[in-house]
Amino acid sequence: MRILRVAQKVYPDVKGGGPYHVHAMSRDQAAMGHDVTVLTVGNDDSKPRREERDGYTVVRRSPTVELLGNDISAGVAKFLATADDFDVVHAHSHLYFSTNLAALRSRIGDTPLAITNHGLYSQNAPEWVFDAYLRTLGRWTFDSADVVFCYTDEDRERVREFGVGTDVEVVANGIDQTRFTPDGPESDLIEAEGLVVLFVGRLVEGKRPQDAVEVFAGVRKAYPNAELYICGDGALRDELRAQVADLGVSEAVTFLGHVAYDEMPKVYRSADVLVLPSRAEGLPRTVLEAFASETPAVTSDLEHVAPVVEEAGETVPVGDVAAFERELRELIGDEAKRRELGRNGRTTVEEKFTWENTVSETTQTLDSIR
Questions:
Q1: How confident is the model at residue 354 (pLDDT cuts 50, 70, 90)?
Q2: How far apart are CA 289 and CA 357, in angstroms?
């Protein structure tokens, strides 16, 4: 099967769960014998426009203009206009202009289209903007596909609520459990004498890292040896550093910036609890990676996240700093509970979120629509 994967971002050009998902899916489908090309947007002139790596082909096209954090590329449009020799097109995230272009191509061409929903809302713009988008162009984009992949039943229902009528398949966002395990070395990046609270994600409004810092400042009063490590980078970095200084916890907060994906299993093993106060998520890989490492989590009570998190962590309302602080204090002070939740997390991932199943089920569905 010849697969054209349309993805705004791909690892290792861009770090993060979504880009890594694109890379790993392409790598493993290529290992299965499929011919995979990833069409992506990139403005790093040091990287070739076309590259063969890890068994698949990467085609990069430069951005033409940027809107709300969305790089729009005329080069992607030109490539899609002449890409007639693929059996199926698989686009990732309806939030990117490249996926809108893939939808337009599907409307006027014969090649079937699949779209993976990595989360309904962007972390870079207000929710009301994307509500309007999802009821108009977003719905049109989804309905242009032969099938839409969602990670959870709750995600599928949310998509349906916006009037999407195309077929929807639920395929869990699996984790490589041979990489993310509770056993093995810890990270040299984390040099803590006390308990470690971990935040992993882009430093943007949608992830609400300010809440993580404020919550930790409260936790620190009860547990003076606790430390917060922040993995990720973004527009809020300087604001967060100022917040840390204002709260008087600079000596207890470490900004790690982007951390190599190969290092992340060690980072999760070094942490005692993960905190994720996002206002919106699909099913974040960070939580599943932490669970696979037997690290419990405290997250926002989001409809499509809570059913998973509640098996091995705690959820609280978005923006409820006091509730986040209360749950973190309880976990930090109860080692037996942390261990129990950690074991539950590993079991949850082993039973429901294996990467092998994700690749197999996705590939079977792509084959069925061509």
A1: very high
A2: 16
Q: How far apart are CA 363 and CA 370, in angstroms?
A: 11
Please report, for residues 3, 79, 88, 101, 204, the alpha-carbon distance to residue 84 in angstroms, rounded to integers and kept in the order given. Answer: 11, 10, 10, 14, 38
DSSP tag of 252: G
Instruction: Mark residue 257 as left, alpha or beta (left: phi above 0; alpha: psi -120 to 50; beta: remaining).
Output: left
Q: Is the dihedral of CA 172, 173, 178, 180 positive or negative?
A: negative
Instruction: Report d(CA 328, CA 332) in Å as an integer.
Output: 6
Say what the alpha-carbon torsion angle 304, 202, 237, 300 is, to the nearest 10 degrees. Answer: 10
Taking the chain, what is the end-to-end CA distance rounded to the nearest angstrom?
9
Specify whether the CB–CB gap between 243 and 210 falls below 8 A. Answer: yes
Quote the pLDDT of residue 211: 97
The structure tokens listed for 216 are 């930790």
2-174+354-369 matches 196-352 in fold: yes
pLDDT in tens, 97-113: 999 999 999 999 899 99
pLDDT band at 155 (very low <50, low <70, confident <90, very high): confident
Q: What is the pLDDT of residue 253?
A: 97
Instruction: Identify the burial level of 263 via C-beta atoms within 10 angstroms of its C-beta, where 0-12 means exposed, 13-18 middle and 19 or more buried.
Output: middle
Query: Considering only CA atoms, which of 291, 244, 249, 273 is closest in space to residue 333?
Result: 273
CATH class of 196-352: alpha beta
- Alpha carbon distances (Å) from 336 to 44, 235, 290: 48, 38, 17
Tell me the fold of 2-174+354-369. Answer: Rossmann fold (3.40.50)
Task: Write out pLDDT tens, residues 226-279.
Answer: 999 999 999 999 999 999 999 999 999 999 998 988 899 999 999 999 999 998
CA–CA gap between residue 205 and residue 20 (Å, rounded) = 22
Name the residue ranges covered by the structural domains of the chain.
2-174+354-369, 196-352
Task: Name the pLDDT band for 311 (thresholds 50, 70, 90).
Answer: confident
- Picking from 341, 28, 304, 297, the residue whose alpha carbon sits closest to that of residue 176 is 28
Radius of gyration of the chain, Cα coordinates, nearest whole angstrom:
20
